[in-house]
Design brief:
heterodimer, A: about 190 residues, two-stranded antiparallel ribbon, 7 helices, 8 strands, globular, B: about 160 residues, mainly alpha, 6 helices, extended
Chain lengths: ~190, ~160
C-alpha cells in the first residue's frame, strides 16, 4: 500500500459497481462496506450501468471488462463521452489482465486497472491515488479521459504535441493562477 | 494537427482524503479483508464446483474442446476472478492460464493442444487436493507460466 498511515474517509462517497459475476460482486460489495462506503449501486450488465450512470454522478465506478451484453470498455467510453460521469474516477477490473487489455482500458478513459480477485489494500491505494491526484482531463477526437501522459517523459521521436496550445497557455508566467496553484506556493 | 482540450475537473474522490479523526488506510483495508474472509467459506464450494465443470469440459476430445472454447474461457475467467478470495489461489492461477490459452487461440488462431492439456492436468491435481500448501503448488504454477511464455501466450 502506498501510504499506510494516510487517513481516509469514504463514507460520503458514492460508488457504482458494474459486475456480472455474482461472487465477484459480493466480494466488491463487502470491500466497499468495509471501507465505510454507504452509497453502493450495482449493475450486472452494460445496459443497466448506462441507465444508472445517466441518472447520477458517482465518485467512483468499478467496471468489469467482461460484461454479458458488451465489453466494459464500451460502457466506459460512453460514460466519458456524455453524461454526468465524464470525469468520475473509473477503475477497470478483470480476472485476466494482459498488457493489451490494460492498454485498452487506458485508451477508453479509465484511471487504472486492477486484477481480480480484488485485494482491499490495493483497491484502497488506487482510490487514494486518484483522490490525491490533480490529473488533468483530455478531450480530443477519439479520446476523452484522464491525461494519459501524466508522467514527465519526452514524447516518442516523430510524435507531435497535440496539447501545444493548452501547454503554451499554462506555461505563460503572466496568466492567472488557479486557487490550487496559489495554495501550492504556500503549502 | 488535431488539437486536444485540456482541463482540470473537480476530483470527486478528493474528499476521501480524511482528517485526524478518520481511520488509516491500513485499518480500512483490514476491515474490508475481514468482511471478505467472512464470505470466503461461501465462495469455496462454488469455486470447486466450477472447477469440476471446467475439468469436465476441458477433458473432452480436441474437437469438442475447440467447439466449447468460448464456454471454457468464460468458466475459467469466472473461477480466477474469485478463487483467491476463497483461499484457492493455485486453482485461480491455473484457471487464469486456461483463460490465457483460449484468448491466445482466439487472437492468433494457433491452438496449443498439449499445453492446454497440461493446464487441465494441473487443475485436476489441484482440484483433488485443494488444501495443498502454496509452496508445493508454486513449482507447478511457475512451470506452467514458463510454458505459456515459451508458447508466446500473453499472461
Amino acid at each position: 500500500m502506498g501510504e499506510r498511515t494516510t487517513r481516509l474517509n469514504l463514507s460520503r462517497s458514492s460508488v457504482l459497481v458494474v459486475e456480472d459475476n455474482p461472487h465477484a460482486m459480493e466480494i466488491a460489495s463487502q470491500i466497499f462496506l468495509g471501507f465505510g462506503v454507504r452509497q453502493i449501486q450495482r449493475a450486472t450488465c452494460a445496459k443497466e450501468a448506462d441507465r444508472l450512470a445517466e441518472g447520477a454522478t458517482f465518485d467512483l465506478m468499478l467496471v468489469d471488462c467482461e460484461l454479458p451484453d458488451e465489453s466494459g470498455f464500451a460502457f466506459v467510453r460512453r460514460a466519458r463521452a456524455n453524461g454526468p460521469n465524464r470525469t468520475t474516477g473509473i477503475i477497470v477490473v478483470s480476472g485476466y489482465t494482459p498488457r493489451s487489455k490494460v492498454e485498452r482500458a487506458r485508451d477508453c478513459g479509465a484511471h487504472t486497472v486492477l486484477c481480480k480477485p480484488l485485494a482491499p489494500g490495493l483497491l484502497l491505494d488506487r482510490i487514494a491515488w486518484i483522490g490525491r491526484g490533480a490529473r488533468q482531463f483530455v478531450e480530443s477526437e477519439g479520446y476523452c479521459g484522464p491525461d494519459r501522459r501524466h508522467r514527465n517523459v519526452a514524447l516518442p521521436p516523430g510524435q507531435d504535441e497535440r496539447r501545444a496550445e493548452a501547454l503554451a497557455l499554462t506555461a505563460s508566467p503572466e496568466r492567472a493562477l488557479s486557487q490550487n496553484e496559489i495554495n501550492s506556493l504556500f503549502d | 494537427m488535431p488539437t486536444a482540450k485540456l482541463y482540470a475537473p473537480k476530483n470527486g474522490l478528493a474528499k476521501v482524503i480524511g482528517g485526524a479523526d478518520d481511520l488509516t488506510a491500513v485499518m480500512l483495508a483490514s476491515r474490508a479483508e475481514a468482511r471478505v474472509r467472512g464470505v470466503s467459506d461461501q465462495l469455496r464450494p462454488h469455486v470447486l464446483a466450477a472447477s469440476d465443470r471446467l475439468i469436465g469440459l476441458a477433458s473432452q476430445s480436441d474437437a469438442e474442446v475447440k467447439a466449447n472454447r468460448r464456454q471454457i474461457g468464460e468458466l475459467a475467467l469466472a473461477i480466477c476472478e474469485v478463487a483467491g478470495a476463497a483461499g484457492l489461489d493455485a486453482i485461480g492461477d491455473v484457471a487464469r492460464g486456461i483463460r490465457a490459452m483460449t484468448e491466445s487461440w482466439a487472437q492468433t488462431g494457433i491452438w496449443h493442444s498439449e499445453g492446454f492439456k497440461l493446464h487441465v492436468d494441473a487443475l485436476t491435481l489441484l482440484d483433488a487436493d485443494p488444501d495443498r500448501s502454496a509452496a508445493s503448488s508454486a513449482g507447478l504454477l511457475l512451470r506452467l507460466r514458463h510454458m505459456r511464455a515459451w508458447l508466446g501466450v500473453a499472461d
